[in-house]
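Ticket #4471: structure output looks truncated?

Reporter: J.K.
Steps to reproduce: submitted the chain below (310 residues) through the standard prediction queue, then opened the result file.
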Amino acid sequence: MNKTIKVASAQLSPIFLNKEETVEKACAAISEAGKNGADLVVFPEAFISGYPDWVWLIPNSKGAELNELYLKLVESAVSVPDNATSKLCEAAKKAKTNVVIGMHERNTESSNSSLFNSLLFIGHKGEILGKHRKLIPTGGERLIWGQGDGSTLCSYDTSAGKIAGLICWENYMPLARNAIYESGAQILAAPTWDKSPNWLQSMQHIAREGGLFVISTCMAIKIDDIPDEYEFKKLYPEGRKWINTGNSAIIAPNGQILAGPLEAEEGILYAEIDFQQIIKSKRMFDAVGHYSRPDVFSFNVNSALNKNQL
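Returned output as attached by the reporter:
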């Protein structure tokens, strides 16, 4: 706990629905972060290989169009492990940095044709530490991703401290957050698609509530980043430039924003974090310590793998 490290939030755009090129871009960013002294770098939600924003634009009655897009999405998704994860692990090892990266993950345990919205955790020695599958896709996302389960609600011991992750709006789930707090997490990776001021306020609240550092990383992507072959890009309002402006940030346990928000540009945010701030923040309020009242409240997580969650 008596140490200071540097962490990074990689607000980048993927090479849309192109796994190979997106992985190469991620590896270059990992290398850059490592050269700049980062002990941890967090990438956006669904970075490999792009957020399926068409779920908010195309009605479900357009089955043929949605089938083609879904095919492209599955073809650009990640299996754990595969060649893509091997490249990411090698990049993390060379950079000597820990990595948390969002991805579309194929359900290799069964049909290999359904998808999860997942986070991959990679250690600084290049080993896969684990993954987390988003518990509940939001709104139109339910047409794309299956539901994760409690088996991936945990934190990982790394050279950068104990790291956990929740994806986008599952950070709004009080019990999911409590599970992360009880895991002893010191850093919460919060990859997201939400760029709103409300989101940043929630991230500041969660940092204070959990007494931990929060790295909120959002994708910065322009309409021009979508290849012309995808007709849905014509459904955006005329003259619109940005699909998502990002607003990534790094937040301290007292709710202070240490870096960001970074708006309407790609870039990597950096911040020095002091683990002693975690202890100081919990003197008055420790959600899973002296303020938890287990004699009044009981809490349990079903950590068994649910093979029927799709």
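Triage note (M.O.): checked the attachment and the full token line is present. The two ends are 39 Å apart (CA to CA).
Status: closed, working as intended.
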